[in-house]
Structure formats: C-alpha cells, structure tokens
Amino acid sequence: MARFITGFSWVTDGISGTEAATIETFADISAENAQLGIALTELKWLKGFEVPIAKKEFWLQSFLELAPFPEVSTQVASLPWVVEGHTSDRRVAQRNLALIAQDDSAFLEGLLNVSWLNDDISSDEALAVQEIVALNSAAKRSLLDLPWFLDELTVQESTLISRLATISGADADLPSTSLGLEWTADGISEDDELAIGLLALLDQPTAGTVSTTPWFIAGPVETQEINLLKAIARLFAHSPELSVMVREMDFFRGSAERHDVSAVDAIKTLNQDTEDWALLSKQSWYKDGISDDEAVVLTVLPGQAKNVPTDYQSLVDNRFYMEKVTEPLPRSGSVDLYLVRFLEHQTESATMTHLRSAVLEIEDYMGFPLPVKEIIMLFSTNIDAGGINYGSHFTLDVSEDASLPQLIEGGIVHEISHFYPVAESAWFGEGTANFLATHVGFELYNQEVAPRSNRSSCPNDVTNITEIKAAYPGFYPEPIAHRFCYHNYGERIIRGLKAAMGDGPFQAAWRYIF
User: Fold this and answer.
1) What pTM, to 2 d.p., does this model score?
2) Domains in the chain, please, with CATH?
C-alpha cells in the first residue's frame, strides 16, 4: 500500500500539509482494516488531481468510520458509485452506511445486496439510507422482507421511510408494527405514504392508538380514511389533549365515514369558542364518549352555534329526533340518509320517503354514483335563505318539514345538488340545483317547475350569462330581493338549452360535464 501511494500523482510532486493529513487518514484506515486499505487503492478519485485534496480527506473520513467492520467495509468500498467518486448524494449515502454499520452491521450486510444500492444513488435513495439510521433493528430488518424495498426505490417508498423515521422518534416500535401491516407489504402508493406521514404528525399515544384502529389496520385506502387521519392531525395541532380523548371514542375507532371526519373537525371548531365548548363538554353524552349517531349530530353543531344559537342549545341538550335509513342505490351502493329535527315523526316520515325517492331519481338522471355516501339534513328553526349546504350537511327551514312531500322537494333536492362540485360558478351551481329540483319534481309528482324557481323577484333586464355575473356579483347579492337571481336565471338558461338541444343530446352533454 505504501508503494501504491507513492505512485499517486499528487504525492510525487511533493506533499503539502493537507496531503500529509490525507495520507495519515489512509494509514489509520489501513492500520484498523488492511483489507479495506487495499480496496481503497482502487478508488480512481484518490489517485489523481481531479478531486481537490481537501475533498479527498473529507471523503476518506467516512471509510475511517467503516474500518472497524471488516465484513461490510470492503463491500462498501467496491460499490460502483463509491469507486467512481462522490457527489453530494453519494456522500450522504456513504456517511450513513457507516452509521448503519456502527448500529447494526448485520442489517448492512443485507442492505448491500439490495439492487438499488448497487447501481448509483439518487437523491431519494440517499434520503432513504439517511432515514434508515433512525429506525431500530426490528424496523430495519423488516425492510429486508419487503419486495418493494428490494426492488427499485420509488419516491413514495423513500418518503415512507422518512416518515417512519419521524415516527420512531416518538415510538421506536411503531415503525416495525406499521411495516408488518398487509397494506405496507404489497407496494407503497401515494395514499399509503400519506397515511404514514399523517401518523408521523401525532404524538406517541395518539399515533399508537390510531395505528390499532380496524380501519387503519385494514388499510386507509378510501378517501374518508385519509380525511379522518387529516382531521385528527388538525385536532392534534390545535390541542394534543383533545386528540388523546377523541382517539379512544367509539365513533373514531369504529369506522371512517364522512360524518366522522366532520365530527372531529366540529370538536376543533367548537373548542375555539369558550361558551359553545362549555355547553357541549358538560353534556353526559359527550363525556361518556361519542357514538356514531352522536357524531352525526356533532357534524351540524358548528353551523348552528354560529347561525341559530337556540338550535345549538337544543341539540347539545339532546332535545332532538333522528331518523336514519340506509338506501341501496344501483350505482352508489348503500347511501346513509339522516334527518335531524326537533319535531317527533312517524315510523318513516313523509320527508324521508321523499328523500329516498329523490336520491334514486337524481342518481338515475346523472348516470353515475352520488358524490357523497351519506346525506345529513337538519331542519332548523330559523334560516333566512331557506336552505344552506355546509359541505358536510345541509339545513332547511323547519317549515319545509311538511307532511306532503310535494311541498318540499325543491329545497331538499336543491341542497343535495350542491354536493356536486360545480359551485365555482354561482349561476351554474345554483342553476344546476334548481334544474335538478325541477326534474325530480316533474318525475315524482308531475310538477312542472320547482317551488324555488318562482321565489325570485329579479328584474328582467339581463339576457345572457355575462350580464348575470355583472349584475349580481357573489353568491348572495344585495338587495335581498335579488338573493335568488342566480337560481332563477341559471335554471332558465339550462332549461332553455335542454329545449334547444333535445333531451338525448342534452343529457349526454350534461353527464360529460359532470
């Protein structure tokens, strides 16, 4: 080795102080591990002037850390990307391979046989090697049993390892548990990586409990499961104490439905108002742990606390009635229908009967599944606009909870229609809602025009969409007499277009838009 070094071009022309330090490092490596020293003589970047001497010294330091591990050190030195020379990613990877050797050299032996480590090192792969350092031995060795880890490493897989490293800081055993789940063994999707990433935002008690919920163990592959993880992460950021309470509640552990997400967000919202929170948190049904049906009620509370405080008082005092039906639809499958009201009702109210018929008719006309798997409707005691869709649920004035369904189909269908993502354009969103209400009214009750279409007192001074938008800016233009202008004019345009095109071409275009 000494004869080999004297042949280096930067040695033959005289030795500077930095060059002497580099030779000393090389000597230290060779003294600790002669085989590694021999292997290093093959490194091209060590021989010539292409790499500055200071950088040579810097790079050699990582081999000094590997020297005590003869079973893996020479294998690292012979990796093609190590022989070729360092980039920043290669430097990060090599440095962390040395750290892995110090912690678990047996794991490093297995890691060095992984294909992606033996060609070149990308930024994502360098990140993965760096984050593996933080995992305990059980989690490290679990990786070697996963086909996706042994193959080429994707961005999602690298990021997943990074998230697991974050989790290990709070709970060293949770990463290996997570890697033992069936859905982490068959390849990592964006949702898989996101789910583990959201788990990483939580503290140890919360993350540990969430990871044991049946819906997480089965795989958070549905939109609402991911949304529920996001909701508990938002609640944790607001109040770790509240997240610890919620994680143990039946509604959270039992399922991941749309109203469960809304219920977690409702707890966060209500907790920010001292009076609202005091009223809710003293209730026995809250302190006992929220059930699934109670989570439905939680969904509607923030809107009522803000807009109709008397309703909020009645709801938290448990002075309400709930009617629930699961309706099987041809395209949507099972859809849960909830009616929350302050009046008693018969076994199945006329309103629920209408609602069941209406969702079937809406689905049939649209030609694809409903945009939501549950519909929560609250009959409120005071709504100026007649109805409000909050995204999670909608409210209608209690006066529309009538015994004759033909009196209410306009409002109910109108608000259901707002679950379709067309609200960016007010005239089209409100016009669509009125158009579908008219369609359902005609199909179910032979009613030519939905009641809401006749409520507008808009002047007849607009003739096209541009003029509508200019005349009535925003979703709630003033004066209040113009509140329903978008409803009225929007539906007129859509109905006129249908008449001009004919039913078949119009419906084909309508379904294409949605």
Assistant:
1) 0.82
2) 1-133 (no CATH), 232-319 (no CATH), 338-511 (1.10.390.10)
Interacting residues of 447 by C-beta distance below 8 A, sequence separation 6+: 406, 409, 438, 441
Closest CA to 100 of 110, 90, 114: 110
Instruction: Sort strands 394-397 and 374-380 into parallel, antiparallel or unpaired.
Output: parallel
**What are the structure tokens assigned to 11, written together?**
């040695």
Query: How many Å separate Cα 212 from the centre of its chain?
Result: 18
Gap between the Cα atoms of 110 and 132, Å rounded = 13
pLDDT in tens, 359-400: 999 999 999 999 999 999 998 887 765 688 999 999 988 776
**Cis before residue 214, ω within 30 degrees of 0?**
no
- In this structure, are strands 333-341 and 321-329 parallel, antiparallel, or unpaired? antiparallel
What count of other Cβ atoms lies within 10 Å of the Cβ of residue 454?
Answer: 10
**pLDDT of 163:** 94
Q: Which of 160, 151, 154, 174 is nearest to 132 (CA)?
A: 160
Would the pLDDT of 243 be above 60? yes
